[in-house]
Amino acid sequence: MDNTDTIKLLQECDAGTKMAVSSIDEVLDKITDSKMQHLLTESKAHHEKLGNEIHELLLQHGSTDKEPTPIAKGMSWIKTNMKMGLDTSDATAADLITDGCNMGIKSLNRYHNEFKAADTTAQTLCQNLVSIEEQLCKDLRTYL
Fold first, then answer.
1. Contact indicator for 43, 24 with CB cutoff of 8 Å
2. Measuring CA to CA, how many Å separate 131 from each of 81, 84, 112, 118, 124?
3. What is the pLDDT of residues 7-57, one digit of tens each?
4. Nearest CA to 102 among 37, 5, 48, 23?
5. pTM value?
């Protein structure tokens, strides 16, 4: 059951779900539109649920979870606080989350291609995470 590509793909997806939850948390209390707030809360719950599934699979493979890199978290925090400090509008929050989704989609697709030997379950979870990110981007377009 020790497949290095499977573990690496799951770890990258795990870090991605954590980054998404953290990013949503950064802006959620600043959102004024109730529909947008609901959308982000729902997306956060989807990311957390998928993150829990990924964590369980990592444990089954005898591995540990992965935190987002401190540099990525720090850069995200700085960008979010700088932009939201200048403009606290829902459009700014939508812009920030959309940028994060796009970076996540790009990274996840790269990891999906890089870890080709990952098992079907890990590949499917990765694609599900990409789908969640793509849907959130699409849903946020009306707020940009």
1. yes
2. 27, 27, 13, 18, 10
3. 999 999 999 999 999 999 999 999 999 999 999 999 999 999 999 999 999
4. 23
5. 0.91
Six-digit token string for 103: 């970076």
Could you tell me if 6 and 119 are in contact, meaning their C-beta atoms sit under 8 angstroms apart? yes
Residue among 23, 15, 139, 133 nearest 81 (CA): 23
Amino acid at 10: L
Q: 57's torsion region: left (phi>0), alpha (psi -120 to 50) or beta?
A: alpha
**Could you tell me how far CA 73 lies from the centroid of its own chain?**
12
